[in-house]
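cron nightly-structures :: item 1 of 1
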Amino acid sequence: MSRADWLRAMPMIVQALVGLGVGVWTTWAGLRGIRRRPEHPIDGVAWEERPLPIRQQDAMVGAFIGLHGAGHGALAVLALVDAMRGPDPSSVPPGVSPTVVFWVGMLGLLVAWVLAGVTLGFPLVYRRTALVPVRFGPYGFQHGARVVGWEGFSHFAVDLPGRVIRAYGARMPDVAKGVWHPPTEALCAQAAAVLDGVLPRAHTPRPGAPAAPHRWAPVAWLLAGMAPLLLGGVLLAGHWWSGAYFAAAAVATMQLGNSVLHHFGLD
């Protein structure tokens, strides 16, 4: 690219970086809000913890989050390259002004990079916000200000020396849906004692119950849903309205990840 091309592309690069920063900040602020001290704490065993890195909690969940972020990142890069190249003049109808074409591209660029910042920023800020207040009670647990019942879990396992408790999903009993890391072995043992009263330590399928989905099914569903969205970004680049496509594809990718997790009972 020539110097003139770089100067023309500079507003788009700045827009992308601003969007990325806004997305990361949004994730950081959201996590801090979720992890604030509860106004109405439940009764039970309480501690504050810094969560384990996502990759140490569950391999499938770590892969899912990483691939979801990679999909958003790929869409954002495609949107930036498309905006820097500009639309094919032959794709612009006679009645559409260059100003409209420019702002459609910038809108798609901003949305794609904000949502990329949200997903790519999650693993970066996950352990860098405030300590998380946790409480274990007989009817559920409190994670910051959020209260979740035990009915969404099938069983649990405890690693007392490592101070790690994993509770597995009711729909996907091979996937750790909840992972906690108490600061001391004593607190870990007390929390496990609470769980002993509500969940078994081994999964026993109910007679006649449908087979659980494959452990890696959520990743397969995510990849199957993201592939056409990314392919569309490649094929539709260069059209004057491609910015609108990248914005819609980024929103669809975000919704896809949330929907897959909800479908498999992992949200």
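cron nightly-structures :: done
The helical segments are 3-34, 54-57, 59-85, 98-125, 185-196, 217-236, 242-263.
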